[in-house]
Design goal:
Layout (H helix, E strand, L loop, with lengths): L1 E4 L4 E6 L5 H4 L3 E5 L5 H25 L10 H14 L2 H17 L4
Antiparallel strand pairs: 1-2, 2-3
Helix pairs in contact: 2-3, 2-4
Length: 109
């Protein structure tokens, strides 16, 4: 996942996992963040990444690639939480979010 500035707007570029190529029929997703401000783009990017990762997890489950069949949305949300927290991903998103919010609006304390 990469944040790119294309002049008129920032984009989040997300590589689709190889096993999901048949579902999405492409290798990358480009999502406009509708801003030229890098700080705003970083904050919006965090939300986009979380949603895309949740979608990837759900698609994998639909393809029975995760080994978990017939899971509820709560089960999938729990698996996603474990997945992102296990790699420090969630903590990185929170750190970026708090740093950017602090710089935009002063101290959060």
């Amino acid at each position: 996942m990469v944040l790119l500035n294309r002049g008129s707007s920032f984009y989040e570029v997300i590589n689709i996992p190889r096993k999901l190529f048949p579902v999405f029929r492409k290798k990358q997703i480009w999502i406009s963040l509708h801003t030229t401000d890098k700080k705003v783009a970083s904050i919006r990017s965090c939300s986009i990444i979380a949603k895309v990762n949740a979608r990837f997890l759900r698609e994998e489950q639909m393809l029975n690639l995760t080994g978990f069949e017939n899971n509820s949305d709560d089960d999938i949300d729990e698996m996603l939480t474990k997945l992102i927290s296990g790699h420090g991903f969630f903590h990185k998103l929170v750190d970026i979010f708090l740093r950017e919010m602090s710089s935009l609006h002063g101290s959060l304390t």
